[in-house]
Amino acid sequence: MRVVAPILALLPLALLIACSSPESRIADHRLAFGNYPAEVQQKIRAGRVDVGFTQEMVLMSLGEPDRKFTRKTEAGEVEVWGYHDHSPQFSFGLGVGSGGRHSTMGGGVEMSTGGYDPGERMRVEFRAGLVTEVDLLKK
Predict the structure, then answer these.
(1) Backbone Cα Rg of the chain
(2) Domain map of the chain by residue range?
(3) How many angstroms separate the CA atoms of 6 and 128, rounded?
């Protein structure tokens, strides 16, 4: 129990550091943001992206992608950024085991702030550094 208490005390700090919002990313790039048209600024603040955005605009709006890959087509190379849903996820487990004359039983509850989610929520495609497509997952 002595080990668990310090870890639990640091958990909120770790979550705060890991969380990034459009406003915090805008603050880091205030000069560039100030040069964007008002319509673009409004979309970035809302965490949205649009065709014609630069990679810098997408990073301000959505943050770093969860994965990046390159697709080769007849028209040339396309860079694709994938974003996943990072909402908290809960799971519950129960286990039973035995060995010799002893048996044990246990259970647990886990909370995660995301991690790998095979169902992407969004893909952003770039050609020559500009967004050409935005794919949104329908729920």
Answers:
(1) 21
(2) 22-136
(3) 48
CA-CA distance, 106 to 93, in Å (whole number)? 8
Residue of 91, 118, 120 whose CA lies nearest to 107: 91
Measure Cα distances from 13 to 6, 8, 17, 28, 36 in Å.
12, 10, 6, 20, 33
pTM for the whole thing? 0.66
Can you read off the two tokens belonging to residue 17? 């550091």
Residue with tokens 């497509």: 133
Whether the CB-CB separation of 134 and 62 falls below 8 Å is answered with: no
Please give the C-alpha separations between residue 89 and each of 18, 92, 123, 129, in angstroms, as whole numbers: 16, 11, 22, 34
The string of pLDDT tens digits covering residues 81-128 is: 999 876 655 555 656 666 667 666 666 655 554 444 456 789 999 999
